TrEMBL record:
Organism: Nocardia jinanensis
GO biological process entries: cell wall organization; response to antibiotic
SUPFAM superfamilies, sorted: beta-lactamase/transpeptidase-like, NTF2-like
Start and end residues of each NTF2-like N-terminal transpeptidase domain: 44-150
Full protein name: Penicillin-binding protein
Entry's Gene Ontology cellular component terms: plasma membrane
Domain Penicillin-binding protein transpeptidase: 335-590
Lineage: Bacteria, Bacillati, Actinomycetota, Actinomycetes, Mycobacteriales
Length: 610
């Protein structure tokens, strides 16, 4: 090895000349030693050859470059196979030589399956025999902490999958094994008998699966029809009863399963579709050392699993259950949407089975709003300055504007009254007149201020807020102003309107915490004076107007509506109590009192504190 000769003080001239000669000699010797240790026949070159073969997965060549090829072959093969390795990069570093032995620093960079990376450094032992350097085999050639009889292996620990919770933290969707039950009617000699047996086997899980419904659906399907998807507990109950039924097949698969299939079933389907791709966490892994018997003797590398965080829904279990029970009590299509005004959180989306047949209509259905739209008309009238809650308006039994005759319900009239009274009594004639006097875009602008009209991209929830086209024609504005004409809305849109009155501005709705909602369309601000006026008017609807039925349920603010449609009329009630805004719709439910009754049932079922 090169040596550096130094000494104290300054040398005389002759000594300097001698020192120069010594430096040249020492440098020459250093070159000779370095050439011998690291040149074409040195340990680094031999190490590079070994690592080149090892990284190229040319195991036999790499093993032949060691002094114990058989042991090296087994160990190097095991390293690639047991690590489930995809690629290896290696670099050599400094060499240290002591006679006929040496060590060469190395760095390994493994790329393992699943995008895992593992880098570590060690020292490759070398030996010189017959003038040539070769690898002196030991476990350290693979990893610095491996003994000669040890191997290493990759072990993967799956991360717990995410769960979906409702507002209070309880699970509503959990990862697990589900059992898909299918029925191929063509594969059964007696499909009627099989459908009846299926219905009986599944009756305690889903009473809606009647023999007729199962058979009709199976016959309409192109091939096997999915009768039901069972969670693990349900399959434990029903599985034995399904064995041996001709044409019935049960397959198991991983999925997100509801903890309670009666809890917001349509909504849970939509949430599942939204989160399913993001429920897997990042798996943990470790590389362990094993002895000749396969027992683990140490951990060489460990990366902890990173579970995916649970998804938190804005849905409130108690409100959702109360709303669901309330709509389930009706035969016609019944639905309710409940929003938290202060946050925009969706507290409940409830539909009965009659409504479910048409899809998620509570949030995307398009219905004329009838008299609940008088809230928008009243706000527009106040905003443009043609009326206030105290302005006296005429409420005759009927009024003709242009070619349209507008009657009040059953021809009632109350004469000249403040707009608050006309609103509380739901005078069509009063609000038709006000609408006819508005500018052509006033209703459109007023509706947008309540959140009606813009498009909302809500994660986990398809939505339609409403459509309120501008109307140049005076007659058209008249019809639109009482919620008929071309105006259509959804219960979701009407719940937004009620929430806007409660909070003073249109909230941005959301369902899954942390998932932003995109809003496409203008939402002008609401004048605080308009909001105060509407609140007073909506309170009178409950205190002395068309929603007195719900007056015993606390300080409720609301507006009733009955929208005329072919074959009947829709029953509406919208409003709020505290931080709970709602919209209830019974399709062809008749009198608005029916929607009030359903809403009252929801509030009556809530515990104290709501």
């Amino acid at each position: 090895m090169p040596q550096v000769i130094t000494g104290p003080g300054r040398l005389p001239s002759a000594a300097m000349a001698i020192r120069s000669v010594l430096v040249i000699v020492v440098a020459a010797l250093a070159f000779a030693v370095t050439g011998c240790g690291a040149g074409s026949s040195g340990p680094i070159t031999a190490a590079d050859s070994f690592l080149g073969a090892f990284t190229a997965r040319d195991i036999e060549t790499a093993a032949d470059l060691t002094n114990r090829p058989e042991k090296a072959l087994a160990a190097l093969t095991s390293a690639w196979d047991q690590l489930d390795a995809e690629e290896l990069h290696a670099n050599t570093g400094a060499a240290r030589i002591s006679g006929d032995t040496a060590t060469v620093d190395y760095t390994y960079e493994w790329r393992l399956a699943g995008g895992r990376g593992w880098t570590y450094s060690g020292q490759l032992p070398m030996v010189r025999a017959g003038g040539s350097w070769t690898v002196r085999w030991s476990g350290a050639a693979v990893h610095p902490r491996l003994g000669d009889t040890q191997t290493m292996a990759l072990s993967v620990q799956q991360a717990p999958r995410a769960r979906v919770n409702e507002q209070s933290g309880s699970d509503v969707l959990v990862p697990g094994t589900v059992s898909r039950v299918t029925f191929d009617a063509a594969g059964s000699a007696d499909p009627h008998r099989v459908a009846a047996a299926l219905s009986q086997a599944l009756d305690d899980i889903d009473e809606r699966l009647t023999p007729e419904r199962i058979l009709d659906s199976a016959r309409a399907a192109d091939g096997a029809y999915t009768v039901i998807v069972l969670n693990e507990v349900e399959f434990g109950r029903a599985g034995p009863r399904l064995i041996g039924l001709p044409g019935v097949r049960v397959t198991q698969e991983w999925d997100m399963a509801p903890t309670d299939r009666k809890f917001a079933p349509d909504l849970m389907v939509q949430v599942r579709q939204t989160v399913i791709a993001d429920v897997d966490g990042r798996a943990g892994w470790r590389v362990v050392a094993r002895n000749a018997n396969g027992a683990e003797t140490g951990v060489l590398q460990e990366v902890a699993a990173q579970p995916a965080p649970s998804f938190a829904l804005s849905v409130d279990r108690r409100i959702q259950n109360a709303a669901q029970r309330a709509v389930d009590g009706r035969r016609e299509q019944a639905m309710m949407v409940v929003i938290e005004p202060s946050t925009g959180g969706i507290l409940a989306v409830a539909q009965n089975s009659a409504a479910d047949r048409d899809g998620p209509v509570a949030t995307i259905g398009q219905y004329p709003p009838g008299s609940v739209f008088k809230t928008v008309t009243a706000a527009a009238a106040m905003a443009v300055g043609i009326a206030t809650p105290d302005t006296v308006v005429s409420c005759p039994s009927a009024i003709t504007i242009g070619e349209r005759m507008i009657p009040n319900y059953e021809g009632f009239s109350v004469g000249d009254v403040p707009m608050t009274t006309a609103y509380a009594r739901s005078c069509n004639t009063s609000f038709a007149r006000l609408a006819s006097e508005l500018p052509e875009s006033a209703l459109t602008d007023s509706a947008a201020a309540f959140g009606i009209g813009p498009d909302y991209t809500v994660a986990g929830l398809p939505t339609f807020s409403g459509s309120v086209p501008a109307a140049q024609d005076r007659t058209q504005r008249t019809e639109d102003g009482i919620g008929q004409g071309r105006v259509v809305v959804s219960p979701f849109g009407m719940a937004l309107m009620a929430a806007a009155v409660a909070s003073g501005s249109a909230p941005t709705p959301y369902l899954i915490a942390g998932r932003d909602t995109a809003v496409d369309g203008p939402r002008p601000g609401l004048d605080p004076e308009v909001v105060r006026g509407l609140r007073a008017m909506m309170r009178q609807v409950v205190v002395s107007g068309t929603a007195e039925r719900i007056a015993d349920q606390g300080e409720v603010f609301g507006k009733t509506g009955e929208a005329e449609v072919e074959g009947g009329s829709h029953s509406w009630f919208v409003g709020y109590r505290g931080d709970i805004a709602f919209a209830t719709l019974l399709v062809r439910g008749g009198s608005s009192d029916n929607a009030v009754a359903v809403t009252r049932d929801m509030f009556a079922a809530l515990p104290g504190g709501y």
